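Deliverable D4.2, example record:
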Amino acid sequence: MTSERLASEGLTLRAARSNDHGACSDIGIDEAVRAVCEPGPSVWVDVVVEDAEKARDVLQNRMGFHELAVEDALSDRERPALQDFDGLVFLVVPGVRREKHKERYVEVGFFLNDHALVTVSRESLPALDTWFKRWHDRPGHLSKSPAFLLHSIVDGMVDDYFAVVDDVEDQVEDLGDSLFEGQEGRLEEIVRLKRRLLKLRRVVTPVRDVMNAVLRRDIEEIPEEAHRYFQDVYDHVLRIAETVDALRDALTSMVDIHLSNVSNNLNQVLKKMTVLATVLSSMTLVAGVYGMNFEHMPELKWLYGYPFSLGLMAVLACGILVVFKRMRWI
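Output generated by the structure prediction step:
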């Protein structure tokens, strides 16, 4: 079974070290600190920070990580980046937590040396939980080097981005169908989707730069044979970035379509009101003529004067409607 998190002052921690039996053994906090500092079998220490200052003491003073890397790992507003210290590689990659059609991005700091991987986050993530269980039960080739474990975790986190993109893409397609059918009132939904894509793009673009740096730099802690795996992650990130840009362009086009639909519907209303106003004005003309106060009017004392005026109004109204119909206004 996967090891449980161990509570300490300011953080909770779980750690496992590979053994000779094709699995991993749970280790405590003190042993985890020693395993990170001293060469030995591959070890993964997963830390969830509760108190930044107390976590800083463990990461910086006890594990010996560089203060700048620790500062970035404990910050929840750090841009994904890669830093190479003496015998230590530090990088930040955001993970995603999804809740229906909403998502939150949680930054994860990775400390990597030749025998240990330490992950630091503000809260637990499904991707970390999934891969910790796999690592704990069947480390396999991941135990050869922590770099392979790093790749697997980052690859799983990037795959979670695909789930977000697929969800947005489905909503964009439904939105496009409804707009082409002439439905209105979807502008708020378009803006909400554009905000989701903008937030995802702000995450994906720096991750692309991080993966590019991993491939281009000569980093001792990441063996050459692991580069092909990180190249695969880099390709996935590029694909996500391209899809995000395409969806943003599609939503921009939908805004134009929405405004065109609104303008077209307004024109239709104005045309109907124009037809109605023209018909009523012709009838008003007849009523105005017979409403004039002249003494000598031919139909003033005519028995059929009233029905005649009503009929004249009806004939004019019908004639105007026929004209508009031939003009294809109605």
